[in-house]
């Protein structure tokens, strides 16, 4: 048997006996539960739990979803993602059906147990090196997203992921948005790789560092653009602005908390009349600009996104494990500060 945290009947959102798809809390809880279902698919595989012993199915069947495909890593055959289809047998306990997804593609994060750990850590390292887009796991994920979009046409598709899985979902969402396909995305604890400025307690010092960084980044961006005579008609960053992924972050989780400062700083720069500088700076990273300056190609950092719904969990966390965990996102007593940022 698995731990209590793996058992839906012990730790799942059992309070959702009636589902209202227009309720943002219900949508968030269900998306998080499907991501947990992917975690449990891999844990069931590791523990060789099958049929009646398997713990994964309850995480999607409770919400009238069925599993139609598992995404396997080609290096170790671990399950890192899944495609779910919404298939309600009855609408008696379901409201707002027109707001429900037809399909959800969900990705798990790093698993610290079993034989998937080594491969997951490799993927974490690729993320830190801004190379997640070059991995075979992402190629498999991207192929699944493209194939589903091609197969079901205008049907509503959601992307969902946690931690490393949210990085996968964000990268897939950005790729699709650049070709005009906007998919709703639920990104739980999305990693933001940068110096931990948000952890600085002194607000003046923190704001000063961010302003200095913006000035340097914007200045270098202008210099690099001039030297390369870049005349592209369309800015790919601006092209992404119609995509509004939902980012679920916890201030006590240093892996994702920098998103809070990233978006707040943009707003403050607008307020002090430096919005133009920040709109340029926020499209670039110093590392990427340096690579461009020496003539090398560099993929834009994953965390650079123009628009987002930022949902901050203001409920106190006991420790980092709880602040970074997926379980927090379906708590019925969750307190969220919701902010919308449009580029």
UniProtKB/TrEMBL annotation:
InterPro entries listed in its UniProt record: AB_hydrolase_fold, Fungal_lipase-type
Provide the alphabetized UniProt keywords.
Answer: Hydrolase
SUPFAM superfamilies, per this entry? Answer: alpha/beta-Hydrolases (SSF53474)
The keyword Metal-binding is assigned to this record: no
- Tell me one GO molecular function of this protein: hydrolase activity
Membrane-spanning ranges: none
Q: Where is the Fungal lipase-type domain?
A: 142-181
For this protein, the record's Pfam families field holds: Lipase_3 (PF01764)
Q: What is this protein called?
A: Fungal lipase-type domain-containing protein
């Amino acid at each position: 048997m698995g731990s209590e945290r793996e058992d839906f009947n012990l730790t799942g959102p059992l309070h959702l006996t009636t589902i209202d798809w227009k309720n943002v809390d219900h949508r968030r809880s269900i998306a998080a539960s499907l991501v947990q279902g992917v975690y449990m698919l891999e844990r069931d595989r590791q523990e060789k739990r099958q049929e009646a012993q398997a713990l994964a199915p309850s995480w999607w069947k409770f919400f009238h979803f069925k599993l139609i495909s598992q995404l396997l890593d080609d290096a170790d055959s671990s399950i890192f993602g899944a495609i779910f289809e919404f298939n309600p047998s009855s609408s008696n306990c379901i409201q707002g059906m027109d707001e429900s997804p037809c399909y959800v593609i969900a990705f798990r994060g790093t698993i610290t147990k079993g034989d998937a750990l080594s491969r997951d850590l490799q993927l974490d390292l690729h993320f830190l090196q801004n190379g997640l887009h070059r991995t075979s796991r992402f190629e498999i994920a991207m192929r699944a997203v493209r194939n589903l979009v091609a197969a079901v046409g205008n049907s509503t598709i959601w992307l969902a992921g946690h931690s490393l899985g949210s990085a996968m979902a964000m990268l897939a969402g950005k790729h699709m948005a650049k070709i005009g396909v906007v998919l709703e995305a639920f990104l739980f604890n999305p990693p933001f790789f940068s110096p931990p400025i948000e952890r600085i307690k002194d607000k003046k010092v923190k704001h000063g560092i961010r302003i200095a960084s913006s000035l340097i980044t914007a200045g270098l961006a202008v210099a690099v653009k001039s030297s390369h005579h870049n005349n592209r008609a369309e800015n790919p960053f601006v092209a992404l602005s119609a995509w509004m992924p939902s980012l679920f972050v916890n201030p006590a989780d240093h892996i994702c908390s920098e998103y809070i400062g990233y978006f707040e700083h943009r707003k403050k720069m607008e307020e002090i009349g430096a919005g133009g500088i920040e709109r340029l700076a926020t499209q670039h990273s110093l590392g990427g600009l340096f690579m461009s300056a020496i003539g090398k190609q560099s993929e834009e950092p994953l965390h650079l996104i123009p628009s987002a719904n930022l949902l901050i969990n203001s409920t106190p966390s006991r420790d980092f494990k709880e602040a970074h965990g997926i379980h927090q996102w379906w708590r019925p007593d969750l307190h969220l500060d919701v902010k919308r940022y449009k580029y």
